[in-house]
Structures are given as C-alpha cells and as structure tokens.
Amino acid sequence: MAAEAKRQAAEEGLELVRSAIASGYEGVYLRASAKNVEGVFRALLHTGRGARRKTVWLGEFDTAEEAALVYARAQDKAGRPQRKKDAAARPEAAAPT
Q: Which pTM does this prediction carry?
C-alpha cells in the first residue's frame, strides 16, 4: 500500500513531504493512543491563522504514505503550494567555492 501511494503521488505530480514528526510526513500524525499499533495514521489539514485557525480531518489510514497522499491532494485542491525545503539547507545550493 505504501508503494502504491508513492506511485499515485508521482503520477499526480504530488510530493509526499517528509517531516521530522513521528509519522515521517507533513500533515500526518500517529494516533497517540496507538503508538505500537500499525494502521493508525491520521491526516489533518490546518487552515487559517490565529483565531481563525481550523483543523480539517482528512481521515485515518493504514500507512503513513496513504495519509500523506491524501494530505498532498488536499493541499493541491486548496490551491496551497507544497512546502519546499529551504534551499540554503541543501548542499547543492551552497555558494560555489
């Protein structure tokens, strides 16, 4: 299922954005009550800022990759660009010597 989600993302031109959180993907969270159980990845989309901030529930999935795909689709549908890693943090973007 994880490989299928990655293939679908590639076909749709979407990126499953990696993150340092427990799930490994932006917008994907491991259900707190089931840290040792598989199949409990939640996809959530946060909209707005401050008092207008809302959380949109996108569902629970068996794999983090499936949840990341749904999150990427929601980002795309909302017209929000996917976050790109900071160019300065990439080695190939370093100043030439």
A: 0.73
On whether the CB atoms of residues 31 and 16 are closer than 8 A, the answer is no
Distance between first and last Cα of the chain: 44
Cβ distance 87 to 46 under 8 Å?
A: no
pLDDT of 38 reads 61
Reported as half-sphere exposure (CB side, CA atoms, 13 A), residue 17 has a value of 17
User: Crossing angle for the helix pair 2-11 and 64-77, nearest 10 degrees?
Assistant: 20
pLDDT value of position 91: 41
Spatial distance between the Cα atoms of 16 and 29, rounded to a whole number of angstroms: 14
* Residue 40 binned pLDDT confidence (cut-offs 50, 70, 90): confident
